[in-house]
## 1
Amino acid sequence: MKHLRATDRLRETAKTWKRGKATDMAGTHDTTLEESMEAMVSGGVFRGEPMDRHTSFGVGGIADYFVVPANPEETVRLVDFLAALGVSFLPLGKGTNLLVLDGGYRGVIISLKNLQGLQIRQEDDDETLLVRGEAGLPITRLIDCALKDSLEGLEFLAGIPGTLGGALRMNAGAWGSEIKDVVRSLTLVVPGRGAEVIPRSRLAFAYRKLELPEGSVIAAAELAVRRGDRDVIEGRIREIMDKRKKRHPLEYRSAGSVFKNPPGGVPAGRLIEEAGLKGLVVGDAMISELHGNFIVNRGKAKAAHIIELIEEVRMRIRDMTGIELETEIVIVGEDL
Ligand SMILES: Cc1cc2nc3c(=O)[nH]c(=O)nc-3n(C[C@H](O)[C@H](O)[C@H](O)COP(=O)(O)OP(=O)(O)OC[C@H]3O[C@@H](n4cnc5c(N)ncnc54)[C@H](O)[C@@H]3O)c2cc1C
């Protein structure tokens, strides 16, 4: 009988995953892999986790593993371990810009929800304050902190429902500002290289994206802000939240804007509205009647319904205008 060393057994498991047989693991899971991850992280290792619980769309099949590091050090160990084995993994914030397909995700979802540290420090020039947040910090907490400490410059992020890490990865923005405008540096976990602090000058931001080395995970970031007038800051935040309530279908589950705005100035939402597509329905997925760029889940939508709507919109806009709409939301996983 052939005895495999622990690392060989892990590699065998990784190969099985790559062959797409990970669903077999629901019954005959590999204890070696699971135990290794359990020994590495203290926030939990969950096998067969339904992703509809972790995405704002409320859809998505089962992830083979959903693993929760408790701190950046555990994140580094986990990322190194999975990358060395060639196991697929995906960092997750609040899942508010993410569509997981109905067949689920083959590999490990790394939830950063326990990385919520937040500190503020004064820079040498006295005027700039640096807000250091860990990746899983909800944007709502960042905004609460800005308000409490009268920090000016982050108001545009108010109402964006994700985490700091997700906002950086997506270069989240609204009302003419993007998070790239306030980033000073970020702490990046790169497989095999540990955690590195990368200054803003070396970060390649683009419209709704930040280019990162393959397999890297944002662990934390520093944002540069100024001390401002509390009433002014509060007024701006309130104005933004009011606009969001009026313009966005917040009573439904969604992932925000589905499509990027195409070059040329006409927003994707307007193109969709002008094409008469508002209210279009597939299953329980619907193009919002309020905002053309939102697809909402009316209750029991499946990822397949959302994908069908996306394809329909792209086809009709292409036929009518010649414009090729690109998705802003990140689509991962397998079909059923
Ligand atoms: C009602 C509503 C309104 C919205 N309004 C806006 C808006 O005005 N402007 C805007 O830009 N967006 C908006 N969004 C979209 C979304 O909230 C943002 O893109 C948000 O920044 C995503 O953060 P998240 O933590 O949910 O990321 P997730 O959805 O969890 O992840 C998104 C992507 O980032 C990656 N990722 C997440 N965390 C990390 C990390 N730490 N390191 C590396 N990669 C990571 C994931 O793998 C995935 O590819 C809205 C969404 C909703 C539902």
Note: The pocket of flavin-adenine dinucleotide is lined by residues 56, 90-98, 112, 135, 160-163, 165-167, 169-170, 172-174, 217-218, 248, 250, 254-256, 330 (CB under 6 Å).
## 2
Amino acid sequence: MSITILGAGNVGLALARSFIRKGETVVLGVPDPDKYRAAVSELGDAVRLLPTGEAIAASDVVILAVPHAAVAGIATGLADWQGRILVDATNPLAPGLSGLSVGTTTSAAEELARLATGARVVKAFNTTGAENMADPAYVGGMPVMPVCGDDADARQRVLALASLIGFDAIDCGPLSAARYLEPFAMLWIHLAIRQGHGRRFAFGILRRD
Ligand SMILES: NC(=O)c1ccc[n+]([C@@H]2O[C@H](COP(=O)([O-])OP(=O)(O)OC[C@H]3O[C@@H](n4cnc5c(N)ncnc54)[C@H](OP(=O)(O)O)[C@@H]3O)[C@@H](O)[C@H]2O)c1
């Protein structure tokens, strides 16, 4: 079955490229498909571009790669997500990158789970730059991809997707761990943008035998 990605911007197209490279078929959902027709046609036949609602209906895994402001409308736009896996790749950035708009005693992912009736929400693909999602290959090792969610089966499915495209996928347990994943994303953004490291780096985990 296809993987649906809502949003065809930096993250949406990057993940689409990586999944296609691994033989998956992808549905990209956007409010106005005509706007993205040319960009998406470059990805070839393994991608279909549909309006948001049709794209959601096409898959049992839906990745949110949209601005955080669009999330609530998408979540409540469906009366029942019927067990779909809803992967939250968003970051609730406060204006001027001053922090997280939801704070740290909840998370965007937990708020999403409250709104998306019947969805199995998983947080993933939010902690590194889109360039790393398009191409996770580094000479020094695999970039880490933390994944959390309350439904064990959904979490495993998303861990497998992150591994498939080349990440060191780490099971972080319950969805409440998104309270750590979202600030962790802010560290990547802070280093890339404020501290002048640029976007060509990724976090990884070192392990002793
Ligand atoms: N950029 C990164 O490196 C990065 C890394 C990790 C996580 N993130 C997070 O990932 C999310 C997306 O970031 P981005 O940089 O990819 O943003 P972006 O380039 O601005 O792309 C956002 C996409 O979402 C679409 N969209 C807006 N409302 C929608 C809706 N209701 N249904 C379907 N699609 C909708 C937009 O379409 P229109 O153009 O028609 O509005 C656009 O294609 C953000 O929450 C961001 O915080 C970004």
Note: Residues 96 and 120 are 31 Å apart (CA to CA).
## 3
Amino acid sequence: MRVRCVDLVVPPAEVAAARRLLSPAELCYADRGSPSVRDRRVLLRAALRSLAGHVLDLSPAAVPLAAPPGRPRLLLPTVDLSCSASAGVGVVAVAYGVRVGVDVERVAGATLAEVAEEAWLAPVELAALAALPVLQQAEALTRCWTQKEAVLKGLGVGLHGDPRTVLTPVPHRGHGSISDWQLTPVAVPAGWVASLAVRPAAAVPQLLSRGTRYR
Ligand SMILES: CC(C)(COP(=O)(O)OP(=O)(O)OC[C@H]1O[C@@H](n2cnc3c(N)ncnc32)[C@H](O)[C@@H]1OP(=O)(O)O)[C@@H](O)C(=O)NCCC(=O)NCCS
């Protein structure tokens, strides 16, 4: 397992160098976005190629990545990938023999009451968050979101899955499990939170059925 935090705020020359690592299909996808989305996509994808190249002993441009959009996928079934970006910070993960999902978010400014209205937390999670000291709540609820999204990205369904059904171990500071997924915090700059979810490849169902609870 290799995980890397990526600075997505870099000079134009670094973006230009990163573009040279991407395939025509990746560049085409990146260039559909606004300049900031384009550069974020380019830098994140180049970082994913670099890390996968390091693991596979290939040059980044030679890494056999399926074309975007969607879950990043290598044309090698035993190696799995995931990536995420939030407000200038990216995280990429490359794993051998397991399924992986990663998510990074800037710590939210929203209150618990506001988040409750968005309905992505289960009642048991809301209660656990409310029991924390107020100063810990913003980071804890952002971590909660990153854990949910890491699992949903590991499953490959993203936000087509229902985050309320992914029940997180709220009081624990980043470590824990959800069903067969092992959760680990990823080191990122202060003000951001990132979570990694890893599961044995054979345990991942092909399809996430509606209403399935992951605990
Ligand atoms: C994929 C998704 C989880 C990304 O969430 P996000 O917090 O906006 O973005 P992140 O930076 O964490 O991750 C983005 C990367 O995840 C990867 N990704 C895309 N679809 C994925 C999926 N189904 N599973 C795992 N990873 C996926 C891509 O590499 C993507 O990078 P890109 O935006 O450069 O293509 C989310 O956009 C999604 O599920 N979309 C599909 C459902 C949808 O469109 N819902 C309406 C909007 S809420």
Note: Residues 204-215 have pLDDT under 50 and may be disordered.
